[in-house]
Amino acid sequence: MIYGDRIRLRADERADLPRFVEWLNDPEVREGISYYLPISLAIEEQWFENMLKLPRDEQPLGIEIRTEDGGWKLIGNCGLFDFKWRARSVEVGLFIGDKSCWNRGYGTEVMRLLLKHGFETLNLNRIYLHVFATNLRAIRCYEKAGYVPEGCLREAEYKNGQYVDFIVMSVLRSEYTRMVNEPVE
């Protein structure tokens, strides 16, 4: 487990798959990610089996929040992928599928935990992401976590009948080190 103040990241389980399918078939959830077709439980089960063959560092993690009774509730999924070990670089992604948890800072906390894990545990040098230029909520989340824009992949995705830009954002190890060593105001 990777613990934050209000969340924990844990290995995905087969029992999570029906919830993932529900979320990934929700048009509002899908709006911020690259999925564009409905997904079946059979497809998600196939994804799960393939995911288990990846090295542990490359397997996604479930995002859980603490409940009032002291238990844990799954609200989304995240992970590091497309590892370039020689360059010490990786892409990061997440989605909060439980819409009751949107706009509560969980995404920012997840991104900060993944930065800590990537730089302090995996010895990475660069963690980057792609975000739709139209996804302003996600861009704000990433900026709060310390990500800085690097550039724009113009009309890189076709979504909802139009071409959409991807913004590339990243955090370098040197920037992360400055962030964690800055005094909190």
In short:
With 185 residues, the chain is α+β, with helices and mostly antiparallel strands.
Rg over alpha carbons: 16 Å
Query: From N to C, what is the helix and strand string?
Result: EEHHHEEEHEHEEH
Main beta sheet strand tally, sense and closure: 8 strands, mixed
Shape: globular
Q: What's the CATH C level of the domain at 2-128?
A: Alpha Beta
Report the average pLDDT across residues.
Answer: 94
The fraction of residues assigned to DSSP E strands is 25-35%
User: What's the total number of strands?
Assistant: 8
Order of the strands making up the biggest sheet? 1-2-3-4-5-6-8-7
Secondary-structure content class: alpha+beta
Distance between the termini: 29 Å
CATH superfamily of the domain at 2-128: Gcn5-related N-acetyltransferase (GNAT)
Return the CATH architecture of the domain at 2-128.
3-Layer(aba) Sandwich
Low-confidence stretches: none
DSSP summary: helix tally: 6
Explain what this protein looks like in three dimensions.
- With 185 residues, the protein is of the alpha+beta class.
- It has a domain at 2-128: Aminopeptidase, CATH 3.40.630.30.
- It is 32% helix and 35% strand.
- It contains six helices and eight strands.
- It has an eight-stranded mixed sheet with strand order 1-2-3-4-5-6-8-7.
- α4 (106-121) links the parallel β5 (89-96) and β6.
- α1 (17-24) packs across α3 (41-52) and α4 (106-121) crosses α5 (136-145).
- The longest helix has 16 residues, at 106-121.
- The relative contact order is 0.14.
Write the layout of secondary structure elements.
Layout lengths: L1 E2 L3 E5 L5 H8 L2 H4 L10 H12 L8 E6 L5 E13 L4 E8 L9 H16 L4 E7 L3 H10 L2 E12 L2 E11 H9 L4
Helix pairs in contact: 1-3, 4-5
